[in-house]
Amino acid sequence: MSFFLETLAGGLLAGVMYALVAIGFVLVYKASGVFNFAQGAMVLCAALTFVTLRERGIDLWLSGLITLAILVALAVAVERVVLRPLANRPQITLFMATLGLSYVIEGTSQLLMGASVHELDLGIPDTPIELGPIQLSQFDLAAAATAGALVIALSLFFDRTRIGLSLRAVADDPGAALSIGIRLQTLWAVVWAVAGFVALVAGLLWGARQGVQFSLTFVVLKALPVLIIGGFTSIAGAVVGGLIVGASDSLAEIYLGPLLGGSVSTWFAYVLAVAFLLARPAGLFGERAIERV
Amino acid sequence: MPDPILELTDVSLAFKGIKAINALSFTVERGEICALIGPNGAGKSSLLNILNGVYRADSGEVVFEGERFARIRPLQAARRGIGRTFQHAALFGKLSVLDNVLAGLTRHSRTTLAEHAFGVFRDRAETAEFRDRAEAILAFLDLSAHRDAIVATLSYGVQKRVDLARALVGRPTLLLLDEPMAGMNQDEKRAMSGFIAQARAEFGTTIVLIEHDIGVIMDLSDHVVVLDYGRKVGDGTPAAIRTDPAVIAAYLGTPH
Question: What's this model's pTM, rounded to 2 decimal places?
């Protein structure tokens, strides 16, 4: 029993890490209805910048602040150069633009900071601690606490503030939003900056876990089933989706792995996502389209 | 003494060679309700789109509040006090009625992003004030019962009223209404006309509206401009328009 619980808890904590990446997608999707393919590149860029600063001997917090400043500058630049000229274009155009943007960010980051693997130490010990019958990684618990705080802050931001209201209005109908005096450009810059902040948090935690390297951009692929299961428009959905993917991945690996010859966790989440697409296309917490006929 | 809020001189707009609006000139006085009428395709909606910056006129001059503009963008138009509703209510369908109306107050926000994000300093007072203003408009347009309903679930007539509420809450000086009564029955039209007339009386808003129902226009408006194929074929009081031979020929139809 304690083995099952430990597998489950380990899976759930890994799921929190997936959720962190998925939240970045949800933010941009909520504000512009676009799947931001560049989110993975932003995670890489954030982690690479941070680790480069640390290797130059710069203090932990100062490195974090400088990286955040760079990501905010990146957000403003993206709004100016990419989003503004494409305003009011079909969403597929914006999606393609983020696809191109991901290559630009990845390429520039590696050009400036190199493509080698860096070790990242955040000063959080990765030793297991005993919690009743099971052992849990301290690092994973810290990651879970960070994600929890982030989710609460973002939910309050979206639901309780007028900026959040403006964001929801823009996502619904950008043309009408402009006509009633909502500043689309400022809002987009704000959203990309917040998505950059989320990418920083995800990049640091993932980087500390598996080293800062190019493969960080592939966490995008794990975020996709999370988004399909949780819904593209819900921050809470991203968390629940992440937990489901993390838990089912590790349980499937342990209990189905021996029957199917292993490596179950590489594909199990996608099969689960397909099942959700058939049964519940908007995801668990996504907005279902309301249609009056 | 005339006090024009809006003056158009020789405004033209073409789409790929088709003249949607052809050398159009007219003046809207402050505080009046001005109706634009004309058959479908006469250029009425295109004209509203020029006034709030969705389209740019190819030539001619638009003077709003004494200021000439060659090109205005929808955001600037809204911030200068030009509000509008849409022919096919372009509401935020996934949001509640109250949230739609609150969104209409965005241009009046004076707090900084940081104040607002943390809900400190002026933000608390502003949030309370905005809520009061939104509630007042909902009560004014008899929408209070629907305040928490998701807009996409409401009937078309109610959605049109929410669109009016969202435009009106920002206290525009000039309000453009694109077919506010389209698709309504006689009772709903009468109610909507009543709300529009009350809005003018209460807030002194100048209103330019597009409408097809001649009966409604004769009762509601002070001034009628008749368009046909992008040209002005009539301009005057409802009574004068009704007897103008050119207008009858173009639009009202001659009795056979």
Answer: 0.77
